[in-house]
Amino acid sequence: MDPFLTREEIRDAVTARRQGADDLKVAFGKDSDDATILRGQLTMYALQMFSHQHRLHLFQLLICGEIARFLFWDHSGAIVSDRFDYTVEPSLLVEFLWRYNHMSAAARGIDSTATRASSEDAKVFTAAVEEFLTNMRNADHPQRELPHAGETLNERYPVYRITVGDDISEKSVDVLVQRPFFRHFFIGRGTRAYLAYAITERELLFLKDTWRVVHDRLIPERKVCADLENAEIPTVSGVLCGGDVKPNGTRGRTRCLLWAKVLKQLPLGYSALRIFQHHRLLQKLAYPVECAPYSRQFVIAFCDCLKAMDLALKKCGIVHGDISLGNVMLDASVAAKGILTDWDHSGKEKLRVSDGQNHQYFRTGTWQFMSIAMLEDPKKPHEALDDFESVFWALLYGALH
Hints:
alpha+beta; 8-stranded antiparallel beta sheet; 10 helices; 17 strands
């Protein structure tokens, strides 16, 4: 069965909504259990392909009896074509298959900045990761651990060679990666964390592969880290290089929302859809603050982050915007200094406060750690005081657990 509504059914639902049926949810999928299961199956197929491959987008072909549809996925969501009867209009299906067969790998959605590593490079990467894991597990003294790092060497995932460019210095670093030890769902930021081996530097590093929200009030994380470094602010994420990924000269951005706006097919109530830009950061390895062997180190790490937040505000006017327990880390030094990471939701406090509309992009943060004032007032701009309160909630949460 076709799990999606026809164009006429969607038009009728939109008309009913505009005529005052406020409780009517305008969607493009049918409500039956079978339709929901099938849409979930399509989503799972897309998830597996995005998880095992370095992709910018994905095409799918759905055939239900004599009815067919085309689907296009990227990190903004999915576009579903009109249904058609391929027994009546076979040329549509034939032309799609012919065009897809003649597409380049990049046009099919493969990220050209990530290529399969040679067998020699794969052996070098495996040896480096195995040595790291052995040292982490067999240390005689209290050792910080990187959760799920052992999942990196998964034979079901091939080793890739990735070129990480830099928007600040225009240099680039070639690294080897395999399976991410942490990842989000691919719709949205789709953040993936890798153990990355720098080939020239012969060093094991951390690679953050993510899709940042494109908005004039949000500063790219690479630029934020460069500004903080130039201001000589300590205990912030030690980024070596990074920036926006632009494969094959493209902008490296999602296209679902752009196409929906051009075709004027954006459903009612879906103004929250966003455009995302592919972004990578290569930085020194850091460890979760929960790995602190002593409570004193745990608390000191939060003190270090508070100092960094205060200096970032005073010297650069920047607020972090997403304080949570997962963003407070420990560096690899013996002193285990606190590091504040994930500045991808940061921005200038003056711009956020002066914006009377308080656009939804500015309401960032993890619910458990957001300030009480922000939770009570959905229209409140995100200010520095909200971040400082979030540090308290994160410290309390971590201490209790």
